[in-house]
Specification:
single chain, alpha+beta, Alpha-Beta Plaits, four-stranded antiparallel sheet, 4 helices
Amino acid sequence: MKKILGLMLSLGSILVAFSQSNLDSVKISSVDLVKDARIDLLVRKQFELNEEAYRNGRHTMPGFRVQVINTNDRAQAMNIKTKLLQEFPDEKTYFLYQAPYFKIQIGNCKTRPDAENLYKKVKRFYPNGSLIIPATIEVRGDSADLDL
């Protein structure tokens, strides 16, 4: 049994060595590519959709937000969100639910110093429980906002 296995392994290695030496002598001069014409249509359509989404849509990037409250009382969370919208009309507020907690976050800060400035403003109104958290933030499609 061992002799047969040894014979098969040696024959296999001879065939592999022989086939590799034959492949080295063969030169490929050209490759013909055949593709379906519908692929070009799909690629063009996807490009148009991506371009439109880029111009009109929102984009995301890593950044920071200020989390104002983390509570299991929905009414309290809605009340704080309403007050934040009144006190900070230029900042976007977020109402998140991660069972069993409701979280209210504010801002789309690209850098930590920007988040710290917003945190200082929010801290005046909500001194307890506010903190800066890393988040995926939204940025507008304007070229001034996208520093990717």
